[in-house]
Structure formats: C-alpha cells, structure tokens
C-alpha cells in the first residue's frame, strides 16, 4: 500500500498515511486532526486527551475476519450514560475497509452500505421494535443509544471530527447478524455485519491491560 507523507500544518512533523484510502489522520506529535486534500494537509481540529481505554485493541493490532487479514488503522471513541465504546477502522489486505465495534467486551464487524437498500427513517421516527428486511434477513431495532463523540485516533476513510451528540440504532437478527443506523450524518448511514467472538478474530499485537487475560 502506498504511504504518502506530508507535513503537519500545525507543527511541521511528518504525517504518514499508511493506507491509500485514508482521508483523515491525527498528528502523533501535536494531536492535530488533519485532512488530506489532494497533496496538501489541512488542520481541522485537535484531539483532547482521551479517557483511559480498557480495550486490549490498539492501532496496528492485526486480525483475521472470515479468512481475510486486517490491521487496525484508526478509531472513533464514543461515550454514553453506561460507559463508552470504540469503533475501530480496520483495513483488509486488499485495501477495503470495515469497522470493528468494541463495546463492553462485545464485538461486531460491519461494513458501510452505500447506497442503502431503502431510505432510512429520520431519527425522530426510529423506535425500538421497528423491523426492516434487507438482503433476505429480518432486522429489528433492539437498542437506541444517544452517545457523545469523544475523539478520534489514527487514520479514517472520511472526515470525522467536532461532532456533538449522536444517535445510534442497533439492529439484530435471529442468526447473529448485526447492524447500526448512524445518525451522525444526513441522510443517516447504515452499517451491516455480524457479531463476532473475540477469539475468532485471532488478534495479535494487542495492548497489555491490567486485569485482562486473553
């Protein structure tokens, strides 16, 4: 994969994009959020100190999903009334990317669905119990979570910064498929995938966390 390099517009340090699909990154030296526009970088914000993270996953963690190797390239961190969770941006060996949701030791791998199979309901009309049938599977909204964007780290495939409160609608099927309607954008975004067991991902290069035993 190509690794274009440019200087941080804030501190001048080299910012290396390890993945050709990456649009946004965080300067490792001054924590500026930088967005790649052609060959130039634009500083659009700054990441404040992130809260302690109990997850053993970190940037550069490697794993395998359905026999496809991937590496963790970035993350978006959210907080809600019961805690927080990570959305890890994962990049596969063929350059395609997805998301590894890491919430209270529950994991799911999802992929953005563009275009959506049907127009998604606005946030004010979504509710628990609402059903959708997509790609031959029956999805039901099981949880609505108002969350607060807390920060970003690493490389992302799109611009994502300076968000406020975001609503997420989680969907499940009877056969462990998983989905999320993400209301951080208009129109809403749809991600579909499945719940996965930690051991099944065969992760390596994990972060040591006190009290956690793989």
Describe this structure in words.
The structure is a single chain. With 214 residues, the chain is mostly beta strands. 0% of the residues lie in helices and 50% in strands. The chain contains no helices and 15 strands. The chain has strands spanning 5-7, 14-16, 24-26, 32-37, 40-46, 62-65, 68-80, 83-92, 97-103, 106-112, 131-134, 137-154, 165-172, 177-182, 189-196. The strands form three sheets. It has an eight-stranded antiparallel beta barrel. It has a three-stranded antiparallel sheet with strand order 3-4-5, with no helix packed on it. A hairpin with a 4-residue loop joins β8 and β9 (97-103). The radius of gyration is 17 Å and the shape is globular. The mean pLDDT is 91.
Q: Biggest sheet, strands in spatial order?
A: 7-8-9-10-15-14-13-12
Average pLDDT score: 91
Strand content: over 45%
Q: What is the radius of gyration?
A: 17 Å
Protein structure class: mainly beta
Secondary structure: helix percent: under 10%
Output the number of helix runs: 0
Find the count of extended strands (DSSP E, 2+ residues): 15
Overall morphology = globular
Main beta-sheet strand count, sense and barrel state: 8 strands, antiparallel, barrel
Termini Cα gap: 30 Å
Low-pLDDT parts are none
Could you spell the SSE succession in H and E letters?
EEEEEEEEEEEEEEE
Architecture blueprint of SSEs:
Elements: E1 5-7, E2 14-16, E3 24-26, E4 32-37, E5 40-46, E6 62-65, E7 68-80, E8 83-92, E9 97-103, E10 106-112, E11 131-134, E12 137-154, E13 165-172, E14 177-182, E15 189-196
Antiparallel strand pairs: 1-2, 3-4, 4-5, 6-7, 7-8, 7-12, 8-9, 9-10, 10-15, 11-12, 12-13, 13-14, 14-15
């Amino acid at each position: 994969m190509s690794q274009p390099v440019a200087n941080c517009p804030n501190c001048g340090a080299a910012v290396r994009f390890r993945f050709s699909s990456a649009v946004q990154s965080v300067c490792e030296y001054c924590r500026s959020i930088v967005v790649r526009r052609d060959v130039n970088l634009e500083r659009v914000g700054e990441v404040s100190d992130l809260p302690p993270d109990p997850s053993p996953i970190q940037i550069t963690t490697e794993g395998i999903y359905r026999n496809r190797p991937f590496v963790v390239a970035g993350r978006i961190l959210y907080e809600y009334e019961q805690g927080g969770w990570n959305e890890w941006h994962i990049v596969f060996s063929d350059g395609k990317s997805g998301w590894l949701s890491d919430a209270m030791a529950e994991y799911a791998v999802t992929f953005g669905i563009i275009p959506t199979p049907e127009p998604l309901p606005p946030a004010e009309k979504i509710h628990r119990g609402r059903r959708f049938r997509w790609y031959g599977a029956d999805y039901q909204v099981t949880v609505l979570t108002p969350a607060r964007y807390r920060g970003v780290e690493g490389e992302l495939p799109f611009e994502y910064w300076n968000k406020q409160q975001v609503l997420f609608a989680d969907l499940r099927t009877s056969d462990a498929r998983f989905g999320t309607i993400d209301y951080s954008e208009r129109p809403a975004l749809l991600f579909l995938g499945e719940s996965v067991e930690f051991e099944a991902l065969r992760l390596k290069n994990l972060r040591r966390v006190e009290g956690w035993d793989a």
